[in-house]
Amino acid sequence: xxxxxxxxxxxxxxxxxxxxxxxxxxxxxxxxxxxxxxxxxxxxxxxxxxxxxxxxxxxxxxxxxxxxxxxxxxxxxxxxxxxxxxxxxxxxxxxxxxxxxxxxxxxxxxxxxxxxxxxxxxxxxxxxxxxxxxxxxxxxxxxxxxxxxxxxxxxxxxxxxxxxxxxxxxxxxxxxxxxxxxxxxxxxxxxxxxxxxxxxxxxxxxxxxxxxxxxxxxxxxxxxxxxxxxxxxxxxxxxxxxxxxxxxxxxxxxxxxxxxxxxxxxxxxxxxxxxxxxxxxxxxxxxxxxxxxxxxxxxxxxxxxxxxxxxxxxxxxxxxxxxxxxxxxxxxxxxxxxxxxxxxx
Length: 345
Prior knowledge:
14 helices, five-stranded parallel sheet, alpha/beta, 12 strands, three-stranded antiparallel sheet
């Protein structure tokens, strides 16, 4: 009996010791990851002028932990006031496009210590009942942040919704707009695949992509099909240009973000007037998922949800060819407007 008690005690001590060592290693790793970064983080204000005040990166990283507690409802009002945290309207919005990589872009930008993101799609500007709740309701959906951090939200439906450009313009006529696009036919098939999966989950049948994308009466591309219509980027962008100059847009190559994300993220950092902080260290390829995952430090890694990167159904090659031929003139006009070309067939 005595030997059993001693063995049980040794086992408990071993477990407690392991927990203590694990906690110590976590603290060491966290400090080490902060020391890896530059100790001072210069912040530019939204007007582009340099602010003399410089915020230590350790402070920003601590605030990130506090922001996490705020989201969970664990932080006190005193903590918010003490650390000068506010809920800001976004200074940049990822307006689309659906199935272009908006979630991946938002999560990757969140690697930057001067960026905070809205965790959910707010759908303020494209949803009439939400918009009727007013701008302070919208502000309340934003995360807490330091006054000189950039708040970003993403709602892909913004890009194709008629009322949105004017509504965003009324909120902030100088806001920066991010648009991530993929090869139009690939994006349309991805759009279809997401809807198909939702139908199958509910044990419902759904038409094949070919039947939806091609009008059976005319044998031409069906522009009434939303997945096709969304991929005509130039038609939607022209509506935005009635309110915002092209200089307020940055177009992200969603196909390249999948295969080689760092150059695309560095371009976004420049567009947002952020000092370069996202590096190859923050991105590592997960062979199992077939996508890049995120490394915030040597302890905390994050991969996108398993729903990302769905396998697309096989599509009749003749339909793919017809769609690409249909999109080609729209793509050429899109290139002319944005001043950038992509390797789209």
